[in-house]
Amino acid sequence: MKKKWMRWLTALLVLLSFLGFSGINHVQAADDSLQKVKDKGVLVMGTSPDYPPYEFLVNDGGKNTTVGIDISIAKQIAKDMGVKLQIKSMDFDLLLVGLQTGKVDMVISAMTPTSERKQSVDFSELYYTAEQSIIVNKADAKLYKDKDSFVGKKIGVQTGSLQADLAKEQMSSSPQLGLAKYTDLVLALKSHKVEGIVAEEPVALAYVQHDPDLALINGKFTLDPSENGQAIGFAKGATSLVAAANKSIDKIKKKGLIKQYMTEAADKMTTNTTDTSMIHYWKYFAKGIGYTLLITAISVVIGVILGTLLALMRLGKNKLLHALAVAYIEFVRGTPLMIQVMFVYFGLGIFLDIPALLAGIIAVALNSGAYVAEIIRSGIESIPVGQTEAARSLGLSQKQTMQSVVFPQALKNIWPALGNEFISLIKESSIVSIIGVTDLIYQLKVVQTATYKGVQPIIVAMVIYFVLTFGLSKILGYFEKRMKHDEATH
Amino acid sequence: MTKPLIEIDHLVKKFGDNTVLNDISETINQGDVIVVIGASGGGKSTFLRSLNLLNKPTSGKIAFEGTDITGLSEKELDQVREKMGMVFQQFNLFPNMTVLENIKLAPMKVKNATDAEATAQALALLKQVGLEDKAEAYPASLSGGQMQRVAIARALAMSPDVMLFDEPTSALDPEMVGEVLKVMQDLAKSGMTMIVVTHEMGFAHEVADQVWFMDQGVIAEKGTPEQIFSAPKEERTKDFLSKVLAQ
Ligand SMILES: Nc1ncnc2c1ncn2[C@@H]1O[C@H](COP(=O)(O)OP(=O)(O)OP(=O)(O)O)[C@@H](O)[C@H]1O
Ligand SMILES: [Mg+2]
Fold first, then answer.
1. What is the pLDDT of residues B131-176, one digit of tens each?
2. Do B188 and B33 touch, CB atoms closer than 8 A?
3. In this structure, which residue's CA is closest to atom 12 in ligand 1?
4. Where is the ABC transporter domain (chain B) (predicted)?
5. What is the C-alpha R_g of chain B?
6. ipTM for the complex shown
C-alpha cells in the first residue's frame, strides 16, 4: 500500500514542479537544437493532416499515411540533416504547444507566420506562397487569360474562403456563385453555371490533374505575402535548426521542387465523386471504432481499480489519504477532460515522452477514476451499517467484510450509475482526437477531408456511436437483470 | 460450578459529552442467561455492543475468558468476535446471499471450513431452527420470524461461547415473536451463555437466570426474575415495570 501513496506523491510533485516551471521559457544558452536532433536520429514533425494538398491522410493498403506538399518538404529537410522523419498529428491549435513542450521539433502545417505566432515560436523563411488560380473548362481555356478576362462572367468560389474575398475585391465586375464544396463548383463549371472557379493553386492543380476536361490559368491576383506565405515553426531559440531548415528550403526553391511536390500531392488527392461513398471508407471507420473501444475498455478497467482505491481512501480513517483522495477527486472533476488530455500529453510530456495513444488512455482513465470513485463511495455508503456490524460480529475482518458483504451489494446498487459512466466514456474519449489519436472522431475528420463531404461522415459516426452505446447499455442491462434475479421477490 | 466468562470492570462509554455507560462493573458466568431490560435510550444496545467491541469503551476493561480484550488489535479482536455471536433487531441478513450462503460465509472465510463441512453444519443448524426447507431461499422471500431464526443459526455457525441478542423480536409482527423466542429458549436450555436485551417480560420470567434493569447508563437493579418482577426495590424499576405492564 505504502508504495502506491509514494507514487501519488511523486505525481503530485511532478504536477507542482510543472506548474512552477511553465512560466519560464526553455532558453538554452548555446543552441544545441540541431545537435540534439542529430543525436536522436529523428526529426519529429507536428502537423494537422486535414488540409490537402499540404497535409492529408491517404489509405495506403489499409494503413493511414500522412502525405502532402509539407510532408515532402519535411522529408527533404530530414534527409539533408541525415536523420529519419517522424510525424505526429495533432489539432492545428495544439501545434505550437507541441513545439513549446518539446513534443515535436518542428511544425509544418501550411502555417502563416503571423506576428502573434512569432511571439511564441521561431519561423523559417517562407517556403511557399500560394498562388491563386482559376479553373476553367479546357474547351474555353483560350478565352481566358487571367482574372480580368471574366468581366460580366459568373465566377465560382468556396463560401467564406479567402478566394471569395479576393474575387469580391479584384473581380468586382464578375458576379459570384458561392458553394461549400469544390466538387459542386466543378459540376457548376461543367454545366456552365459559372465560367471559372477561383482556387488556391495546389487545390486547382489537384482538380485539373484528375479531370482532362479542366484547365488551369493563373489568376494574377495581387496578394499580400504576409497573409499567404507559409513557413516552418520551431521552438524559440532553436536557431541552428532554423538555419538547417532554411538551407533545405533554399535548395528546394532553387530546384523548383515545390511544383513537383504539388503534382505528387495532387495525384494522391481524391477529387472525383465516384468513390466518395461512405462504404468505400469503412476501413477508416472500423479503425476508429477499434481505437475508441480500446481506449474506453482500458480506461474502464483502470478507472474502476483507481476509483475503488480512491473511494476506500476517501472512506478510510487515515486523514492524509482521505485528504489526498478528496483533493484528487475534486480537482479532476473540476477540470475539463480536454485540458487533462493536453496536460498529460504536453505537460507530463516534458518529463516523459508519452505517445499520444498512451497519453490519451492515461488521461481518460485518470479522469474516469475520479468519477467512478464517487459512484463507488455512494454505493458503499448506501449499504446499511447493520450489514458491516453483522459481518464483523461474525469475526470477518474489515477486508473480508468489504469483499464479501459490502462490495457485492454496493456493486449491484451502483451498476446503473457505473454503466452510465462507461457509456459516457465511449463518447467522451473522443476528445483524444485532438492529440492525434486515431479514434472514431479523428477518422471522421479524415474521411471528411478525403471525401470533401461534411455531413455524411458525421451521420455515419453518429450512428456508430449510437450503436456502440446502445449495445453497451443493452449488455449492462442484461447483467443488471441477472443480478436482480438473485434476489427473489416476495 | 461457576466460571466467569465475561468480566466488566468500570466500563464507561461516552459519545462526545453524552455519557451512555456510566461505570459498569459486572460479571457474567458461563451458562448464565441474563435478560437486560430498561427504557429506550438507557444504553442497553451500547452495553451489548461494547461487549464485543463493536463500540470501543471510553475507559474501563472487559475481560473475556480471562483475557482483557479492550487493548487488542483489530486482528485479535476478529478472533474474539467469532466466539461472541450477535443477533440484531433488524436481522441484518446479507440480502445478496441465500440462507445457506449467509450461514456458511463466516465458517468458510474465518475458520477456513470446507464447503462440504460448512454446508453440513449449516443444514444441521437450519434444522435446529426449523428452516431446513429454506436453505436455497433468499432473505427477501422470508418472513421476519424466519429471517431472525436464520440470523440466529448464522451466529451459531461460528460455535460461539456466548450469544448477544439485541431486541431480537422487536421488529417482528406479534404472531412471529413466539417462534423466535422458542428457538432462544431451546438455546438457553442447551446451556448457551446468553445476554438478551428484550421487552418480552414473559421470556425473561421463564428463561432468565438474572434480570438486569438498566437506566441512564448504569445497571440500576438486578436479581432473579422473581425479585425484579415481584418485588423491585428501586423506585425507577417499579416505574418502568408499571409502564411496561400497563401496555
Ligand atoms: N453511535 C452513536 N453516536 C452518538 N450517540 C449514540 C450512538 N449510539 C447511541 N448513542 C446514544 O446513546 C444513548 C443510548 O443509546 P442505546 O441505543 O444504547 O440505548 P438503548 O437502551 O438500546 O435504547 P433502545 O431501547 O431505543 O434501543 C442514546 O442517547 C443514543 O442517542
Ligand atoms: Mg437498543
1. 999 999 999 999 999 999 999 999 999 999 999 999 999 999 999 9
2. yes
3. B20
4. 6-241
5. 18
6. 0.94
